[in-house]
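tool_call: predict_structure(chain=1)
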Amino acid sequence: MLKYFLLLAVISCSAVAEDAETLKYNSDVNEHGFQYDFETSNHIHAQASGDDHGAVKGDFEWHSPEGEHIHINYVADDNGYQPQSDILPTPPPIPEAIAKAIQYIQAHGGHA
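tool_result:
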């Protein structure tokens, strides 16, 4: 069953990919790192650059099926993958009682 699902997924992706053309593609890899940039006719764009220490900085964008422009900037380094975008979920605010408790603990040397 999994084989059929994967086959269907690959066929679906290839059918969608046939509608798009590559408008721009640049890539450079050298001893100091890498850099790439590409854009397709269906409004997908991505670019990234990385250094010889493994840090990568880039962004990618596309239009959702609903027509919304999606744009994500990211850094990936020793601190992990750090995306930034208006579409990413954010944690809810800390409840006021918890915030006051944290302030109290910090003000009293970490002892409640």
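agent: The chain has one domain: 22-109. Proceeding to next step.
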